[in-house]
Amino acid sequence: MDNICNFCSKEFSNRINLLQHQKTVKSCLKLQGKQEDEANIECVNCKKLLAVRSYKQHKIKCDVIFQKSKQEQEEKNDIYDDLKNKYKILEKQNKKLNIDLSESKSINDKLKIDLSESKSVNDKLKLELAEIKGCFSLLREQNERLHSSSASVTMKLAEKVGTVYE
Fold first, then answer.
1. Stated pTM of the model
2. Which residues of 126-140 are buried (b: 16+ CB within 10 A; e: fewer)?
């Protein structure tokens, strides 16, 4: 039985277990003057330090997880890019709407001025209409006076004419 560890004097049932022990057990590694990191391997995906014996099994699982994670990240990036593009489109539309709003406000201001001027003209026309109605009323009164005067003159003339021919 030559399966005794030269460093820690522990006995093993076979040579494979002895070698495995010498490569991985921390206390034995210290006695050998090796650092723990020498017996560990860093996973390229998750950066964990793993014993050599568990690295292969871990790597298989970690590769699957890493690929899945990578796909999810790519999908998130695609969604982010889509949202970013939609945001840019909305931003452009917003700028155009702001310009349209500004133009509409300008047109609205002009229409308010036009409305104010139209009201002013309408007020002047109402005053002129009132004056014309007043003049029309005076003319009607004059016409009635003249009509009654003319009727009386006609009656007087008719009396005179009647006296002449009789």
1. 0.43
2. eeeeeeeeeeeeeee
Query: What is the arithmetic mean of pLDDT over 135-162?
Result: 82
Instruction: Give which of 51, 13, 48 is closest to 29, Cα–Cα.
Output: 51
User: 117, 109 in Cβ contact below 8 A?
Assistant: no
Name 71's Cβ contacts closer than 8 Å, sequence gap at least 6.
none
Q: How confident is the model at residue 120 (pLDDT cuts 50, 70, 90)?
A: very high
- How many other C-beta atoms lie within 10 A of the C-beta of residue 117? 10
**How many CA within 13 A on the CB side of residue 141?**
6
**Separation of alpha carbons 141 and 128, rounded Å:** 20
